[in-house]
TrEMBL record:
<keyword id="KW-0456">Lyase</keyword>
<keyword id="KW-0369">Histidine metabolism</keyword>
<dbReference type="GO" id="GO:0004397">
    <property type="term" value="F:histidine ammonia-lyase activity"/>
</dbReference>
<comment type="pathway">
    <text>Amino-acid degradation; L-histidine degradation into L-glutamate; N-formimidoyl-L-glutamate from L-histidine: step 1/3.</text>
</comment>
<dbReference type="Pfam" id="PF00221">
    <property type="entry name" value="Lyase_aromatic"/>
</dbReference>
<comment type="similarity">
    <text>Belongs to the PAL/histidase family.</text>
</comment>
<dbReference type="InterPro" id="IPR001106">
    <property type="entry name" value="Aromatic_Lyase"/>
</dbReference>
<dbReference type="InterPro" id="IPR008948">
    <property type="entry name" value="L-Aspartase-like"/>
</dbReference>
<dbReference type="InterPro" id="IPR024083">
    <property type="entry name" value="Fumarase/histidase_N"/>
</dbReference>
<dbReference type="InterPro" id="IPR022313">
    <property type="entry name" value="Phe/His_NH3-lyase_AS"/>
</dbReference>
<protein>
    <recommendedName>
        <fullName>Histidine ammonia-lyase</fullName>
        <ecNumber>4.3.1.3</ecNumber>
    </recommendedName>
</protein>
<dbReference type="InterPro" id="IPR005921">
    <property type="entry name" value="HutH"/>
</dbReference>
Amino acid sequence: MAVAGEVVVGVGPVAADDVLRVARSGVPVRISAEALALVGAARAVVDALAHDPRPAYGITTGFGALATRHIPPESRIDLQRSVIRSHSAGTGPEVEREVVRAMMLLRLSTFATGHTGVRPGTATAYAAMLNAGITPVVPEHGSLGCSGDLAPLAHVALALTGEGDVRDAAGRLVPAAQALAAAGLDPVVLAEKEGLALVNGTDGMLGMLVLACHDLRALLRLADVTAAMSTEALLGTDRVFAADLHALRPHPGQATAAANMTRLLAGSAVVASHRTPDCPVVQDAYSLRCAPQVAGAARDTLAHAEQVAARELASAIDNPVVTGDGRIESNGNFHGAPLSYVLDFLAIVVADVASISERRTDRLLDVARSHGLPPFLAHDPGVDSGHMIAQYTQAALVADLKRLAVPASVDSVPSSAMQEDHVSMGWSAARKLRRSLDALTRVLAIEALTAARALDLRAPLAPAPGTGAVVAALRRYVAGPGPDRRLGPEIDVAVRLAASGELVAAAEAAIGALD
C-alpha cells in the first residue's frame, strides 16, 4: 500500500506530476513489490547469459565500438566499474538539483519495468540514495542525447558506487562515500549489465522536458494576463477576442487564449471609455489583435510536447533490453530524437511569445503609438526616462531567446569511432530551453510592470477586475508612477512574482481560474 505523499514506481508509467513532486518537493519514492519481482526475473536472464559462451552485448562484451571484445568472468566487475568511471566525463557548472532528482526518478522507473536486468538490490539502493536527499554532482556538458544521457547518468551512477561528489540533503558538497555512510547506505558493487543499465537512458532530457512543460503552461497563462493588461492600457478593443471569431479558425489553444483575455478584460472602464462610434482606431496592431493566435499556437505546440513526454514516461529505455519472453536484444530506443525535436519546438515557441510581449511594451512607451500616454511613461519626460531602459532589457532578452531558438537537434556530431554516427543532442536542447524559460519569465514580468504603470496613468478610469488585481499585486511591492528611481530592483520583484505564479493567482482570485 502506498504511503500518503510517496511516489510508487512500477505500477504503470510515472506521472508528470510525480516527477515534479519528487524533483522539486523531495517526495520519497518506493519500488512496488510487483516491480521488484519483475526486476528479479529479468536479472535471472542476465545471470544465465553471463554463463553462456555466446557473446551478449554489455554482459560478456565491451561497449560501443569496443563491443567485439570478449570480457572474461574475472574482469566483468572491472568492466562495469570502468564504464561508470570512464563515462563520468562531464564538465562545467553543476546541473540543478531538481533536474538530477527528476533524472534519478525516471531511471528508477525504467528499472522497475523489469527490462534492464539490474539486480533488485541495485534498484532499491538507487531509490534509497534519492530518498536520502543525496544529489550527485552532474556537470552540465557531456551528453549527446544518444545513447541517451550517458555522461550525466554516469555521474549519478558513480555516486551510487561511492565515488565522486554529491550534495547532501542540506546542500553541502561532500564526497559520495561520506554522504552514503552518513545516510546508512553502502556503496553498490556493480554486476554484469548494470553499468549499461545505469547510464543508457533519456532520463535527463525527459526530466527537463517534464519540468519545462509544467513551467511553460503557467507562463502562457501569464502571457494572456500581460497581453490583456497591455491591450487595455493601449486603448485596444476586446471585440477581436470574441469566441465566434475564433471558432472560424478552430485551433484549441487559440480559443483558450482568447477566452482568457475576454474574461480578463471584462468590466474594464478603460475599454468601455473608447467603445464609441467616434473611436478613430479601426484595427489594433498585430501584437494586440493577434495575441491569442500566438499564445494559442504556443499552447498547441506545448500539448504535442506533453504527449511526447507522456509516451516517454511510459517507456523502458535501455540497450540491450530484456524482453518479456526472456530475450536480450540490442535496440535504438535510447535515441533522443522524439524528445530533442519537441524541446527545440518549445524553444521556438518561447522566443516568439517573448517577442510579441516585447513589441507590446515598446508600444506602451512610444508616445506616437500609445494613445495619450506620456513618453516612456515618464513622470517628467526629458528629466525622467521612465521605463525606456526596461524595454532595452526586454530587447536584450528577446535577442538571446532568438539565438537559443536555433535547433540543437539538427546538429548531430558523430562519436565512438563512428559507431554512434547520428546523435540527438536532446540534452543540449533541454539545457537551452531552461535558459529560455527563465528569459521569458523576465520578459513577461517587465511587460506586466510596464502595463501596470500605464494603467495607473489612465486614472481615473479603472481597469478590469482581473487586470486591476494584477496591478494591485504589483503595488504591494512596487510603487506607482513617479520620478525615476532604481528600476532594476523593481524588475527583480516583478520577476519573482511572475515566477512564483503570484501575478496569475491575483487575476484568478478576481475572475476565477484561467485555462
